[in-house]
Amino acid sequence: MTSPTDLPFELVDSPLALELLPDTVARHAKPGPVVVLTDSTAKFLAGPQGLAGDNLIDRVLALLPQANLTMAAASGGQVLLNKETVAAAVAATVGAGCLVTLGSGTVTDLGKLVSHETGVPLVAVQTAASVNGFSDDLSVILRDGAKRTVASTYPAALLIDHRALAGAPVALGRAGLGECVGALVAPADWLLAAVVGADPTYDPEIVSSYHTPASELMTIALGIGGRQQMALAGLARLLTLAGLAMGRAGRTAPLSGTEHAVSHLLDMAAGNEHGLHGSQVGVAAIVAACIWELALDRLDAERAAGIPDDPAIAGSLVAALTRLDPETIDECWSDYKVKPALWRATPPDPAALASLPEQASLWLGAPAEMTAVLAAAGAPTRFSELDPPVDANTARWAVANAHLLRSRFTILDLVVFTGGNSEQLVGDALDRAAELGGGL
Questions:
Q1: Rounded to an integer, what distance in angstroms lies between the CA atom of residue 151 and that of residue 114?
Q2: H/E stretch holding 149
Q3: Is 75 helix (H, G, I), strand (E, B) or coil?
Q4: Which end of the chain is more exposed for a tag (fewer CB within 10 A), N or C?
Q5: How far, in Å, are 39, 108, 110, 149, 205 from residue 75 at the CA level?
């Protein structure tokens, strides 16, 4: 892991960073009013002895007295990042000289999309160490009910005040740790995609820039439960490095593999009632690491399954994703069908597949260590421990079918395309995760 250099934005990272907000805005603003974009979630700075301090929205408005406050459109109390939400935020920002976002992942992704569309400079105030999307130029948006990553823009400045991180609910720090645990398995899917010819952008130097061993995550995990500023600042730094890596790659693939697809599928099935993304990622990462271990042990590099034609595959996909609405299923199929078509056209070299276990071992964390890191922070390690809990049937469904969500090649695609029993493998992986304290 390396320190960030040649940043594509100004980074203001300190225990009292918020006090520098007016000067930061002044450096980047164009002529026109300042718009503060946030949501209805309560946000506080941590006060002395860990007590709640100033209301963060009130403090920002006091620092920027001429700013216009805009609340992001919400449904059921949550901001749904879809085209309607983006259009409303764009309308509130047109003509502004600077956009200031005050929030965690969804609000920041929304701000990046608005800045991308309007050209208004964005100063992002990070309010929790919860996700890795603050420092990249990508955003996750709902398209026809399916979660998709689209190009947005970097913030002009990212402001990280350690008091804001410590003032956030402890569950958000635990979710951020889940994102970091996910990074102990996601790069293996990116490598796999390169090995089978599905993604030539794989770059081990990019992975090295953020890859953090479980031992270092454990040090941070021990301070998260008590909202220790030093631990949360360290977590935010890791998340910043991860976001920068995605920006360098021009895609989320370095940090979004099987574990993220599981979380996305859970969100899509639950609608407005889903849990924290990072917490779902952490739980799913334990299972994904178990899938990898078992799949590599059972891999027959010489065998490629006879892939049925598209109508047959489409029928299977529809049957597997019946929990989703028809429009969303169509969107999933339009993305997924790239993978079998590529495999038929250019089957991977068996020798390249045979080298996969050795190559993947560079990036795969041990599921027992990943479970221990999450447990040390008091974070969920099982789907049933998520808030709201995910029942066993839904969890099995999401793990077994996450590879059908999108065109990104993952370990379960390899199992299916080489004739393995994916249903048996998922069941065995869930059993293995349960032995370690994870899984269902």
A1: 11
A2: strand 146-151
A3: strand
A4: N
A5: 11, 17, 15, 21, 41
Handedness of CA 369, 438, 235, 167 (dihedral sign): negative
Q: What's 42's DSSP letter?
A: -
Instruction: Find residue 140's DSSP bridge partners.
Output: 149
Residue recorded with tokens 């259009």: 87
Short-list 282, 269, 418, CA closest to 343: 418
pLDDT of residue 272: 73
The answer to whether 301 and 119 have CB atoms below 8 angstroms apart is: no
d(CA 112, CA 40): 19
The answer to whether the pTM exceeds 0.85 is: yes
Q: Which two tokens stand for residue 138?
A: 């990508």
Which of 161, 117, 120 has its CA nearest to residue 139?
117
For 42-62, what is each residue's pLDDT tens digit?
A: 999 997 765 568 999 999 999
Angle, helix 277-298 to helix 258-270, in steps of 10 degrees: 130
Tokens of 318: 């529809």
From the list 161, 163, 136, the residue with the least C-alpha distance to 150 is 136
